[in-house]
Design brief:
The complex is a heterodimer of chains A (about 400) and B (about 375).
Chain A: H1 3-18, H2 44-56, H3 74-86, H4 96-108, H5 111-122, E1 128-131, E2 147-150, E3 154-165, E4 172-178, E5 189-195, E6 201-206, E7 215-226, E8 230-231, H6 237-260, H7 269-278, E9 280-281, E10 284-285, H8 288-313, H9 321-344, H10 358-370, H11 380-391
Parallel strand pairs in A: 1-4
Antiparallel strand pairs in A: 2-3, 3-7, 4-5, 5-8, 6-7, 9-10
Helix pairs in contact in A: 1-3, 4-5, 4-6, 6-9, 7-9, 8-9, 9-10, 9-11
Chain B: H1 7-23, H2 26-34, H3 43-51, H4 69-82, H5 89-103, H6 106-117, E1 123-126, E2 141-144, E3 148-159, E4 166-172, E5 183-188, E6 195-199, E7 208-219, E8 223-224, H7 230-266, E9 268-269, E10 272-273, H8 278-306, H9 312-338, H10 349-361, H11 366-377
Parallel strand pairs in B: 1-4
Antiparallel strand pairs in B: 2-3, 3-7, 4-5, 5-8, 6-7, 9-10
Helix pairs in contact in B: 1-4, 4-7, 4-8, 5-6, 5-7, 7-8, 7-9, 7-10, 8-9, 9-10, 9-11
């Protein structure tokens, strides 16, 4: 047996022993695990699964072992994912820390910061949120004004962030702050880690059109932050911020695709809904106009999936690729939900109550949630600007 | 299946790229058009392509070919598509070779593939009969008589139909119009008695013919494959053709887009470069995304063909749809972004638009392939 075959056998055996039975069933919304100091595990097996995976380093299989990662190469990660997929395993941990922050600390942090923060992220002990946008700084992020004054041994932070995902449940925040008020706007920004338990930090949830509150406003009122919480150099935060945005964009664009099933064939989602609510004739969606539009949607999804694959096969060299994927993936995801609720007809907008099933109502809420996909992490328009300028080299 | 080009393919692509730029820029097509060239393609340029071995790319090694596969000839066509080079390479090197290789007897392969390889034979696939591509609608009949077969009917929009040395004719040997089954392929000398070929002048200035067959008698051994055998076999030939055409259309698209981007970077209005206008930047960025998607679909389809993937049909329709819709948009936007000079004959960009609409119809429009994709996927 080759090394990889051995590895597959080991993974399979380990999963057999360690993945609890209920973790091999489809995820239910209120059992999604985000970790953190205040996490509540409605299903106790979620916690067992998180701890087992965390111990193994498989919540972040690509990261180095010394920081608590799995230390696996890309072939091994493929095997791990395929074995997890095979038993229908739930994700052990959803984490902005893993998706966005850990890669950035690995690249820009010092050794002490890596040892302090990364293992806690990967084990789900600390839950992170992202402090980027401000009321006056949306698409023009670099105009941000939350200030961090140098007080010798610490920074004094004052200001407000907005659109901080799950800030009311997070333990720490990674924030962009202005340390150089006199510098040009891109050169006066630093990347700071702040403990949300520190005095002066407060949050307030924002209710969205979906009726849910995944985002908050976060306020900093004379918060003292130790200098050792600065990642990279002072006033070099913009470089780090951009890098992190690439991780975020990749993550958001993959989100859209994962929900669709990749090659456009596996998914029952929008096709299944169309056949259920619009009916079938000889195996075809009966409404031919809808059939045509949904087919076009699936074909775009297929081509988009092939493009993600090609980017990987080419070695993912173009950083601007993340803008292409973010733009296309989020617009595509919005379109998918438009088609889903359209397929459901008058069942597509039932908000509450017993006249619709909970999965129908969930689609309605999710449809509204997707409207933010093309706004968060840089709007579609910002992505198109990036493509025009950085890829196509069009004049400013 | 990795969605990249290996070194061999990259080499072929580079060779074709230099060839197109040096020997056949768009002015080559323009001259053929202005001269009202009888074949609409240039014989000496074709001989050079033969010498470069391009007719041998799809021919198996067993018959003397280089067996670089559909991917090989697709990347060549992609590059030739950038300067809209007209040549028999598609009709002969893709359709002819695949038809003969797929359906022909051993002796037919030996003889015909050998001649194609040496550049001594060009072919045309006569299949369409109506205004839209639909093989099942074949009515041209082939009836058995004592000496062989008698063909009666009409073919239209036959690519290279007026110049080819040999016609491969799809005929109905049983059933009725609309039946997918009952089709056979025949090898027909275009100079046979009863054949009337009429060259059709088209917007893209290439070679097409409408051909009538009136009691055309052909020998029994001139059938390509089994009686009724083309019903199934022709689909593979068509899918190879669709993928190769998608590659050529991708080349058309890439170049029309490149020409337009250059124009956005040099044309000034209101005192600034028009490429600085966000209205144009966003449209250009969206086109770029569609071109990237098209590239992926075309590469996946050509590799699927060479790996005998059971996804061939679906990917072929995906590629033709994606190439068709993207070229449609880019060819229109290219004209619009050029403004007034875009609609002048003197400027080359109009040639891309005129080629685009014709190519979009070849072996099924975007709409045809969307519907086929839905059928295959069970939507």
């Amino acid at each position: 047996m080759s090394n990889l075959e051995n590895f597959r056998a080991e993974v399979s055996e380990w999963l057999e022993e360690n993945c609890p039975p209920s973790m091999r069933t489809p995820m239910v919304e209120d059992e999604v695990v985000w970790g953190g100091r205040n996490a509540v595990y409605k299903n106790p097996e979620s916690k067992i699964w998180l701890d087992k995976m965390g111990e193994k380093g498989w919540t972040a299989p690509a990261l180095p072992k010394e920081y608590g990662g799995g230390g696996l190469n890309s072939d091994e990660i493929k095997i791990l994912n395929s074995e997890l997929f095979k038993i229908g395993a739930r994700p052990a941990l959803n984490s902005f820390g893993i998706w966005m922050l850990a890669p950035v600390i690995i690249e820009y942090g010092n050794e002490a910061q890596k040892m302090e923060h990364i293992p806690k992220i990967l084990k789900g002990e600390i839950r992170w949120c992202q402090g980027y946008s401000e009321p006056g700084s949306g698409s023009d992020l670099a105009s941000l004004s939350t200030k961090a004054e140098d007080m010798g041994d610490h920074y004094l932070v004052n200001g407000q962030k907005v659109w901080t995902s799950y800030a009311d449940q997070a333990d720490w925040i990674f924030a962009l702050v202005r340390t150089g008020p006199k510098e040009p706007k891109h050169s006066g920004i630093s990347f700071l880690l702040i403990d949300m338990a520190d005095p002066g930090v407060s949050t307030k949830p924002i209710t969205l059109i979906s009726g849910k509150s995944p985002f908050c406003e976060t306020f900093f009122d004379n918060v003292k932050v130790p200098k050792e919480n600065l990642i990279g150099e002072e006033n070099q935060g913009w470089t780090i911020a951009k890098k992190l945005l690439q991780h975020e964009r990749n993550f958001i664009s993959n989100f859209g695709l994962a929900a669709g099933g990749g090659d456009g064939s596996k998914t029952k989602g929008v096709i299944g809904l169309a056949k259920t609510y619009l009916g079938e004739e000889n195996g075809k969606i009966a409404d031919l106009d809808f059939r045509s539009r949904v087919t076009e949607h699936k074909m775009k999804e297929h081509s988009f999936g092939l493009t993600l694959q090609r980017a990987g096969d080419e070695g993912g060299k173009a950083s601007a690729a993340s803008s292409i994927f973010k733009y296309y993936g989020t617009e595509h995801n919005k379109n998918r939900y438009e088609l889903m609720i359209e397929a459901m007809g008058n069942k597509g907008f039932i908000w509450d109550g017993d006249e619709a099933e909970s999965k129908e109502k969930a689609i309605t809420r999710a449809w509204l949630r997707t409207k933010a996909n093309s706004i968060e992490g840089g709007t579609s328009e910002v992505q198109l600007n990036v493509i025009a300028k950085r890829v196509l080299d069009l004049p400013a | 299946m990795k969605l990249v080009l290996n070194e061999e393919l990259q080499f072929l692509k580079d060779t074709a790229s230099n060839f197109a730029k040096d020997k056949a820029p768009v002015s080559h097509l323009r001259k053929l058009r202005d001269d009202d060239h009888p074949n609409s393609w240039d014989e000496s340029l074709w001989n050079e392509m033969v010498e470069l071995g391009w007719t041998s790319i799809l021919i198996p090694e067993k018959y003397g070919g280089s067996e670089f596969g559909l991917a090989g000839i697709s990347v060549v066509l992609q590059e030739l598509g950038k300067t809209l080079v007209p040549s028999p390479l598609f009709a002969t090197g893709v359709l002819g070779v695949t038809s003969i290789n797929q359906m022909g007897s051993e002796s037919q392969k030996e003889e015909l593939l050998g001649k194609i390889l040496e550049g001594k034979l060009t072919t045309a696939l006569a299949i369409d009969e109506g205004s839209h591509h639909e093989p099942a609608n074949t009515e041209l009949s082939a009836e058995k008589n004592n000496d062989g077969w008698v063909l009666n009917g009409e073919k239209v929009f036959v690519i290279d139909g007026s110049s080819a040395d040999l016609l491969i004719v799809i005929a109905r040997t049983s059933g009725n119009k609309g039946d997918a089954q009952g089709l056979s392929a025949f090898i027909v000398d275009p100079n046979s008695k009863g054949i009337n070929r009429r060259k059709v002048p088209t917007a893209d200035s290439r070679n097409y013919a409408n051909i009538s067959f009136e009691d055309v008698t052909i020998a029994a051994e001139e059938i390509l494959g089994e009686v009724d055998g083309a019903s199934d076999e022709i689909h593979k030939v068509l899918d190879f053709g669709r993928i190769a055409m998608s590659a050529e259309m991708l080349g058309n698209t890439e170049e029309a887009f490149a020409i337009t981007l250059n124009y956005l970077k040099e044309r000034k209005q209101f005192g600034v470069l028009i490429g600085s206008f966000q209205a144009l930047q966003h449209r250009a960025a969206k086109m770029f995304c569609e071109i990237e998607l098209t590239k992926s679909a075309v590469i996946a389809a050509m590799h699927a063909a060479d790996e005998n993937s059971n996804e061939l049909e679906r990917l072929s329709s995906l590629a033709k749809f994606q190439a068709g819709t993207t070229l449609h948009t880019v060819s229109n936007e290219s004209i619009q972004m050029h403004g007034g000079i875009g609609v002048t004959d003197e400027y080359d960009i109009g040639f891309y638009l005129k080629r685009a609409r014709v190519a979009e119809q070849i072996f099924g429009s975007s709409s045809y392939h969307k519907s086929r994709y839905a059928d295959i996927s069970g939507y």
